[in-house]
Amino acid sequence: MEECIFCKIVKGEIPCAKIYETQNILAFLDIAPIHKGHTLVIPKEHFPTLLDLPAELGQELLETMQKVAKALQVTVKAEGINIGMNNFKPAGQIVFHAHFHVIPRYANDGLKLWPQKSYENNEEMLDLAQQISASI
Ligand code: AMP
Ligand code: ZN
C-alpha cells in the first residue's frame, strides 16, 4: 500500500515545520493555514479517522493540543482557538491519517466556520437525542 503523506512526515521522508513531538504524537504547521500558526496534531501511528483512534491516545492528544493552543496565544497572539477534525470525505477529510487542526482565531477575523439550522420543535430535538443516546 502506498504510504500516506503524514506517515512520510512522521518518518522524516517529507519535511515539516515541526513544533512538538512525543513518542506517540507529532505537531507541525499546516502548509495552508487558515491563520499563520495553524497547527496539525497527529498520532505518529497511522489511523484513518477519529473512529479508528485508540482511546488511550486521547489524553496525550488533548495535552498536546492544549500546549499548542497556549503557545499560539504567546507567539501569534491568538485571541481564540478552534479545534477541528474532518472525518470522512463528506466532512472534508483529504488526508486519511487522523489529525486535529489547532487554529488561532482573532476578534472580527471574518471567519464563520459553519451555517446553523434549527429543529422543527423541541419534541423533534428531544426525540432525536433519545435515538442517538439509545444507539450508544
Ligand atoms: P483535512 O484532511 O481536510 O483535514 O486536510 C488536510 C490538511 O493537511 C490541510 O489543511 C492541508 O493544508 C494539510 N497538509 C497537507 N499536506 C501537508 C504537508 N505536507 N504539510 C503540512 N500540512 C499539510
Ligand atoms: Zn498515515
Describe the structure in your own words:
By secondary structure, the chain is an alpha+beta fold. It has a single domain (5-134), classed as 2-Layer Sandwich (HIT family, subunit A). Helix content is 28%, strand content 18%. It is built from 3 helices and 5 strands. The chain has helices spanning 5-11, 58-75, 122-134; strands at 18-21, 25-29, 39-43, 80-84, 100-105. Strand 1 and strand 2 (25-29) form a beta hairpin. It is globular, with a radius of gyration of 17 Å. It starts with a helix and ends with a helix. The chain binds adenosine monophosphate and zinc ion (ZN). Adenosine monophosphate (AMP) is lined by residues 5, 14, 16, 30-32, 40, 86, 92-95. Zinc ion binds at residues 4, 6-7, 46, 97.
Spatial arrangement of strands, main beta sheet: 1-2-3-5-4
How many β-strand stretches? 5
Sheet of most strands: 5 strands, antiparallel
What is the CATH topology assignment? HIT family, subunit A
Q: How do the helices and strands follow one another from N- to C-terminus?
A: HEEEHEEH
Q: What is the name of the CATH superfamily?
A: HIT-like
Bound molecules: adenosine monophosphate, zinc ion
Distance between the termini: 33 Å
What is the helical fraction, as a range of percent? 25-40%
The first-level CATH class is given as Alpha Beta
Which CATH architecture would you pick?
A: 2-Layer Sandwich
Task: List the keywords.
HIT family, subunit A; 5-stranded antiparallel beta sheet; 136 residues; 3 helices; alpha+beta; binds zinc ion; 5 strands; binds adenosine monophosphate
